[in-house]
Design a protein that fits this description.
- One of its GO terms (cellular component) is membrane.
- InterPro entries: LDL_receptor-like_sf, LDLR_class-A_CS, LDrepeatLR_classA_rpt, Peptidase_S1_PA, Peptidase_S1_PA_chymotrypsin, SRCR, SRCR-like_dom_sf, Trypsin_dom.
- One of its GO terms (biological process) is proteolysis.
- The protein is mainly β.
- Among the domains are: 71 residues, SRCR-like domain (Mac-2 Binding Protein, Roll); 86 residues, Irregular (Low-density Lipoprotein Receptor), CATH 4.10.400.10; 92 residues, Beta Barrel (Thrombin, subunit H).
- Helices cover 6% and strands 24% of the residues.
- The chain is built from three helices and 18 strands.
- A hairpin with a 5-residue loop joins β7 and β8.
- The chain is globular, with a radius of gyration of 23 Å.
- The C terminus is likely disordered.
């Protein structure tokens, strides 16, 4: 039958970006003896019905599906509701239930557990239990397709076994389907064309991206919102003695254009890694605490949701393609004022390339051909 997944895609297909508010089944009119219908099976992330599995069928008995699309203006959510990235408000009970009720998957991210026995991925994402052992990698590291027997179920005797290491698990995953790149909302694996200078980011595409302003009015560095009042950035971007100067901008795409949705926060606190080395860039990381605007009120910047923190150092390996976003410079060293994103490839031979500049805990990404640069910035997300 019709689920919220299909309902969201139907509404997006009709031009309602936030998806569906509700779906129901109604009785057909009495004079409609037989109807030719289209049965769609969607995952919920598609933008057009043509991307779903479609099958024609003739309805002789039963009910018709009715979908109500979300067309209301953005409003504040009450205490019993969850605010989706796209602005929809859904009941809190619908979060982490394996269903894409928001239409943008934001209600299934950063989950500590999943409701109704749905599957909990190691990356803290909930997926429907029906997605387990269906020969498709839905979890970031593919654990939903491990320990499956031929009929598509997890073997009971193996369901609780712990793999020897993530590397062993990864070897098994590589024999399955290609892993879909992570980090971009509502992107499909077909968008692979590389453009020098990067892609221009769309609204709500990187809802965790923040800008850090130092002295003056330009973007000093980028940062990542991780929840509460906290932002993570590079230690080389900030100085503790200038705590009172820095400002955090949330919800910003164009640093030169006024947008009423942009929020500005001053800083309450700054924590720079105690072993940060400004010469070698070892431990180049810092935490910034935004100051609440009203005493006792938590930080809740609009159009901003926290990024899910990687749960293991083994999540990403050399050769995988990732996406970075930020403000910075193009290939001609021209400053960019609009948020952009680009593809980078993780490299697994960093110590050979960077010699004495590569230290434990660092990662490197890019292309072996040094001239082949797509997008670069002082600090990426």
């Amino acid at each position: 039958g019709l689920t919220i997944h299909e309902a969201n895609v139907i509404c997006r297909h009709l031009g309602f970006a936030r998806g569906a508010d509700s779906k129901e089944f109604i009785e057909p009119d009495e004079d409609q003896d037989s109807l030719e219908c289209l049965k769609a099976t969607c995952r919920g992330i598609e933008t057009r019905l043509a991307e779903c599995g479609l099958r024609k069928m003739r309805l002789t008995t039963g009910k018709l599906a009715k979908v109500t699309c979300s067309s209301r203006e953005r409003r504040g959510c009450n205490a019993r509701e969850f605010r989706c990235v796209n602005g929809k408000c859904i009941n809190l009970s619908k979060t982490c239930n394996g269903l894409n009720d928001c239409g943008d998957l934001s209600d299934e991210l950063c989950c500590k557990a999943c409701k109704k026995k749905h599957f909990h991925c190691n990356s803290d994402v909930c997926i429907p239990s029906s997605y387990v052992c269906n020969n498709e990698l839905d979890c970031l590291t593919g654990e939903d397709e491990l320990n499956c027997n031929k009929i598509g179920r997890i073997k009971e005797e193996e369901s609780n076994q712990v793999t020897e290491s993530m590397d062993e698990e990864r070897k098994r995953i590589k024999t399955l389907l290609p892993v879909v790149s992570c980090g971009i909302r509502n992107h499909t694996v077909t968008r692979r064309k590389r453009i020098i200078g990067g892609f221009t980011a769309q609204p709500l595409e990187f809802p965790w991206q923040v800008a850090i302003r130092g002295e003056g009015h330009s973007v000093n560095c980028g940062g990542t919102y991780i929840g509460g009042c906290w932002v993570v950035t590079a230690a080389h971007c900030v100085r503790k003695s200038r705590l009172h100067i820095y400002r955090i901008w949330t919800g910003m795409l164009d640093s030169l254009k006024y947008n009423p949705r942009i929020e500005t926060y001053s800083l309450e606190n700054m924590i720079i890694h105690e072993n940060y080395n400004s010469k070698t860039y070892e431990n180049d990381i810092a935490l910034l605490e935004m100051r609440t605007k009203n005493t006792g009120t938590p930080c809740s910047p609009p159009d901003t949701v926290p990024v899910c923190i990687p749960w293991s150092q083994y999540m990403f390996k050399g050769g995988q393609q990732c996406k970075v976003s930020g403000w910075g410079f193009d290939e001609e060293s021209t400053r960019q004022y609009i948020l952009k994103w680009g593809y980078v490839n993780l490299m697994d031979n960093c110590s050979d390339i960077y010699k004495n500049r590569y230290f434990k805990g660092m990662e490197c990404a890019g292309e072996h051909e040094m001239y082949h640069s797509y997008l670069y910035s002082d600090t990426f997300t």
